TrEMBL record:
The enzyme's E.C. designation: 4.2.99.18
HAMAP family, A to Z: Nth (MF_00942)
Cofactor: [4Fe-4S] cluster
NCBIfam families: nth
Organism in which the protein naturally occurs: Halomicrobium zhouii
GO molecular function, one term: DNA binding
A single GO BP: base-excision repair, AP site formation
Protein name per the record: Endonuclease III
A Pfam family of this chain: EndIII_4Fe-2S
Amino acid sequence: MGTPLESREAQAEAVVERLHEEYPDSAISLRYSNRLELLVAVVLSAQCTDERVNEKTKELFEKYQSAADYAEADEEQLAEDIYGITFHNNKAGYLKNAGQIMVEEYDGEVPDSMSGLTDLPGVGRKTANVVLQHGHDIVEGIVVDTHVQRLSRRLGITEAETPPKIEEDLMPVVPEDEWQQFTHLLIDHGRAVCTARNPSCDECILADICPSAKMDSDVDLASGEAW
Ligand code: SF4
């Protein structure tokens, strides 16, 4: 019990295979119907739950339908329209500025490159990866959110601590055709079983290969601290 496989590659592959069986319908949980909506939803989701974002975007997407709508928006009104989302004032500024850049430099379209996306305010590599993967079908990397960060460390797939370093570590060991799904699978498992504060190791399908499993290990490798 709790013994990881002989290599990080083997460990990553086993994790992906088992989680595919457990979560066959794993997918992005943000709601959107086009690239602009996707970009907006992902920007809003930083440090906020997807559920809350989905609640707010229902009306938001009816009111703001183009990059120009954001560019021309009254910033205070936009902040009010996303009230309830974490950091709504900052995010209103990001959306307005991003709208302006898209209108001026991209003919109102969402950029389709990592550099074009990360030049937009409020868009880091994680957000850009999500938009590239789901909006443009371009898979350039692995989205490392808080669940991916925690689970890949707990499972001994990486010892890196920051999302950029974790992504660098994961890319050579996760099969490339699974880069996109890897994120969704770990998010599903992180929400359902391997939660931040109190993971249900006794019900976990990865317990026999997880070096953090509470039955065998005194230490949560995600934090490096005792359970
Ligand atoms: S729930 Fe426990 S056994 Fe399963 S992956 Fe998380 S820490 Fe490991």
